[in-house]
Amino acid sequence: MADARESLVDGNLLAARAFARAGVDHMFGVVGIPVTSFANCSVSEGIRFIAFHNEQSAGYAASAYGYLTGKPGVLLTVSGPGCVHGLAGLSNAMINTWPMVLVSGSSDQADAGKGDFQELDQLAAVKPFAKCAVKATDIRKIPELVSTVVNSCVAGRPGGCYLDLPTDVLHQTLPYGEAADLLEAVQPFVPAWADGDPSGGRTAVSEDKIEAAVAALRGAQRPLVVFGKGAAYARAEKGLRDFVEITGIPFLPTPMGKGLIPDTHPLAATAARSLAIGQADVVLVVGARLNWLLHFGEPPRWSPEVKFILVDVSEEEIELRRPHVGIVGDARLVMEAMVREVKDDPFCLGRSHPWVEKVRAKAEDNVKKMSAGLERVVVPFNFLTPMRIIRDAILSLGSPSPILVSEGANTMDVGRAVLVQTEPRTRLDAGTWGTMGVGLGYCIAAAVAEPKRLVVAVEGDSGFGFSGMEVETVVRYQLPVVVIVFNNGGVYGGDRRNPEDIKGPYKDDPAPTSFVPGAAYHTLMEAFGGKGYLVGTPEELQFALNESFSARRPALINVTIDPYAGAESGRMQHKN
Ligand code: ADP
Ligand code: MG
């Protein structure tokens, strides 16, 4: 009997073996019918399965895992509603261009159209959010399709792919030998940062374009280097830093590009952002889209005469923006080529170059202005006072610096300006879509992706609320995550409405922006055995940070913020 059973492989085991063979080492998800056995088989094949409460958070985790490691982040869900909840993560991966695979169980193929348990045409549902979407209609197709999704999500511009595993296919069986033969077809994926990749979709770099780019920068009066999370994903930090240091060109990271070159570098133009983008004449943009975050590369924020040199792995992106020079290629390989090109005939602006001096003077001036606000101790807390204390506590940890997770309106805006990034890929925030609710999923992904680093989340109370129950997941896996909640009792804080403007039978309801004042978020962490702190003064915050950072165990610091500090919609008021 035992022999007969062992000689057969079912769809669950075959799929788990295929993912392991493809190089997948982590999965995130919520199990249930029909995928529980698949999750258990995956664990037996050496894959770590991180079980969440909600597919939305698990999906955000999978997408961030893909970004941080360059390995596909895999999200496993049940059929129907589970798959729909998974679209949050899949679409997040697509919009941020991060590699991810959504795997959903689906109902029995024989009962399609009859209203089966959790029935949905999942292939149709995922298509608008996926690079590729495939369904294993027979057990024999599983290995090849696992190989397809795992490899497509990292190829070229990374993104999300979908694999549908019907219940009947998971229950089909094959003789062991046939399964082993089929598994031979599975190709392990190659991450973008691997050397000598012949196939990973990274186009060979055009030498002519490299020459043209360096010539344009050499001839510029006010050159600038801008880099984003695509450059971070590509691990282009060494080339970027060498290029900036050889040429002396000031640089500006996007929010998640922060840390590729330390924020503290003398050529950082971060604190002189408006001046740098308003006056630059030739700009090298590496792994960052000229979308809303960069004001579309258009006037009035940018000069009408500015010339862009765009480096992006996506040809489509280059065609969309029509830059002065467009270089299709992997950011790391392109920056290595740029460094070689400039070394052949070096040029350097030098510290006394008028443009470099202008940017530096403006940055110093702005830093001075902000530090007055930062040094002032305001209690009840505004945003700046606790943010400065958190900044200093993070900096005092040295290397390896923690991974910072940030979301919220004012909390994220103030945090981006105040908190300092000194190492690559140490910032995860609301990203290209400004998605709120990513925080806890990102914390969990960061902790399992980079076990040597502490994870510190600095979030608004509304951002935290989307996925607060995942603190249980943090405790269950004993992850070194410290969640700091800026608690101002609402989305943007207190009720800012003029009472005379509100009419009708429900005018006395709480404002749509309000939560229960003084919510005890720290007790949510304590409910599962983690450590909770409620703080309202600098001394209390300092104590909580010291203790939780050195314990490296799950903790939540509930920071009471004046509900009327900050602004509605943070820095996006013109859109609300
Ligand atoms: P940010 O939000 O930091 O400005 P974006 O997400 O807008 O960054 O842009 C990232 C860009 O990086 C995308 O257009 C994507 O195609 C590109 N990209 C992704 N991987 C690579 C890579 N390996 N090399 C170069 N560009 C990449
Ligand atoms: Mg709030």
Question: Can you walk me through this structure?
Answer:
The structure is a single chain. The protein is of the alpha/beta class. It folds into three domains: 8-183, Thiamin diphosphate (ThDP)-binding fold, Pyr/PP domains (Rossmann fold); 207-360, TPP-binding domain (Rossmann fold), CATH 3.40.50.1220; 376-575, Thiamin diphosphate (ThDP)-binding fold, Pyr/PP domains (Rossmann fold), CATH 3.40.50.970. 40% of the residues lie in helices and 16% in strands. It contains 23 helices and 19 strands. The strands form four sheets. Strands 3-2-4-5-7-6 form a six-stranded parallel sheet, with helices on both faces. Strands 15-14-16-17-19-18 form a six-stranded parallel sheet, with helices on both faces. Strands 10-9-11-12-13 form a five-stranded parallel sheet, sandwiched between helices. Strand 2, helix 3 and strand 3 (48-51) form a beta-alpha-beta unit. Helix 2 (11-22) runs parallel beside helix 7 (142-154), helix 12 runs parallel beside helix 15 and helix 17 (384-395) packs parallel to helix 23. The longest helix is centred in the middle third of the chain and has 22 residues, at 354-375. The protein is globular. The mean pLDDT is 95. The protein binds adenosine-5'-diphosphate and magnesium ion. Adenosine-5'-diphosphate (ADP) binds next to helix 11.
